[in-house]
């Protein structure tokens, strides 16, 4: 059994992938005598985890970086990683750190940079060039883990387009906190949008919905390097019933989820949607697009929340969600056991057992 491990992830920013990394670390750390980390150059968002060694690569990232710069850095890191060896390796960002680890957790499909918000390929020449480069052929026969059935489908499709045939793609639900003493009856008629404040999240849709609603809205989440201009855009165009909270503390986040009644997801084709699972764990009624991981894997196509196909439908759905009977909110809340850490720990350890 391997006793020395190397984990790979970048911490230039904070998002669902980095949160997933922390959960994987906590679920697997007891298996190994030593754990090293290969990460980016500056790692400003690295959480306080214990690593016996931290290997700093040259990778850096800003949300407004042009794609050619990101591509150059990916190639540079591939050369550096080719010299890295360990008994067990875990890669939490295999589309950026091109390294076929013992286990690879893929959080978005390999063609995301070349797709529009509706999932259509918009830069086909670059996709053909990427396939011809065989950059991702390293993942032939790879052991891959994804966060849901929708993610499995789109990741598998992207690899197929690139001519890559992984050994297996397993599904493991990501965990979220299970807060205590949630008052389901004391919630306010507040609509919450939570996650990275980033253009790809389409938060301007939330502003338009707010203009058509009488409810109060809060947009909150981390602002990573390169997203400052988008934050200012949202502030400049927000109607009076919208409050924007950048970089809330853990305590502020907890308070927002406890008092909100409705969670609105605006990004189309989200691969999983960790914030939607968090909303379920606090008893909010999620409203999500009828496409993507939140609809398929979290809301379960309407079993634990509501879905929309058009922006025009959202205000009426918000009214419906705010006035949902307590029994419906309770059913959503109790379904959060799907996202418990104990279930995740058991599942991810089974995947490790299957590949070592």
From TrEMBL:
Domain annotation Glycosyl transferase family: ranges: 179-323
Gene3D superfamilies hit by this protein: Glycogen Phosphorylase B (3.40.50.2000)
Gene Ontology BP, a term: protein N-linked glycosylation
SUPFAM superfamilies for the chain: UDP-Glycosyltransferase/glycogen phosphorylase (SSF53756)
Transmembrane region(s): none
GO molecular function per UniProt: GDP-Man:Man(3)GlcNAc(2)-PP-Dol alpha-1,2-mannosyltransferase activity
A GO cellular component annotation in the UniProt record: membrane
Official protein name in the record: Glycosyl transferase family 1 domain-containing protein
């Amino acid at each position: 059994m391997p006793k020395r491990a190397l984990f790979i992830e970048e911490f230039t920013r904070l998002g669902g992938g980095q949160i997933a990394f922390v959960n994987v670390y906590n679920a697997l750390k007891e298996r190994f005598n030593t754990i090293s980390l290969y990460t980016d150059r500056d790692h400003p968002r690295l959480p306080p985890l214990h690593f016996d060694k931290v290997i700093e690569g040259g990778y850096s990232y800003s949300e407004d970086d042009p794609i050619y710069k990101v591509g150059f850095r990916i190639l540079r890191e591939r050369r550096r990683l080719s010299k890295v060896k360990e008994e067990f390796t875990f890669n939490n960002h295999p589309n950026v750190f091109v390294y076929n680890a013992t286990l690879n957790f893929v959080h978005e499909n390999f063609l995301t940079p070349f797709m529009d918000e509706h999932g259509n390929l918009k830069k086909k020449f670059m996709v053909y060039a990427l396939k011809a480069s065989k950059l991702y052929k390293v993942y032939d026969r790879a052991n891959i883990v994804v966060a849901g059935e929708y993610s499995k489908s789109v990741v598998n499709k992207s690899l197929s387009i690139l001519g890559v045939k992984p050994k297996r793609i397993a599904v493991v639900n990501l965990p979220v906190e299970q807060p205590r003493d949630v008052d389901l009856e004391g919630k306010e008629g507040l609509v919450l949008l939570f996650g990275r404040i980033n253009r790809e999240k389409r938060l301007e849709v939330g502003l338009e919905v707010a203009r058509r609603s009488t409810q109060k809205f809060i947009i909150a989440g981390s602002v990573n390097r390169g997203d400052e201009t988008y934050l200012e855009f949202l502030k400049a165009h927000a109607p009076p019933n919208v409050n924007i909270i950048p970089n809330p503390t853990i305590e502020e986040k907890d308070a927002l989820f406890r008092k909100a009644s409705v969670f609105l997801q605006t990004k189309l084709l989200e691969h999983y949607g960790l914030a939607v699972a968090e909303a379920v764990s606090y008893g909010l009624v999620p409203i999500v697009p009828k496409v993507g991981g939140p609809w398929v894997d979290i809301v379960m196509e309407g079993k634990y929340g509501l879905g929309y196909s058009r922006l025009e439908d959202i205000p009426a759905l918000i009214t419906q969600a705010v006035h949902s009977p307590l029994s419906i909110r309770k059913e959503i809340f109790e379904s959060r056991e799907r996202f418990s850490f104990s279930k995740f720990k058991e599942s991810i350890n089974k995947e490790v057992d299957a590949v070592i």
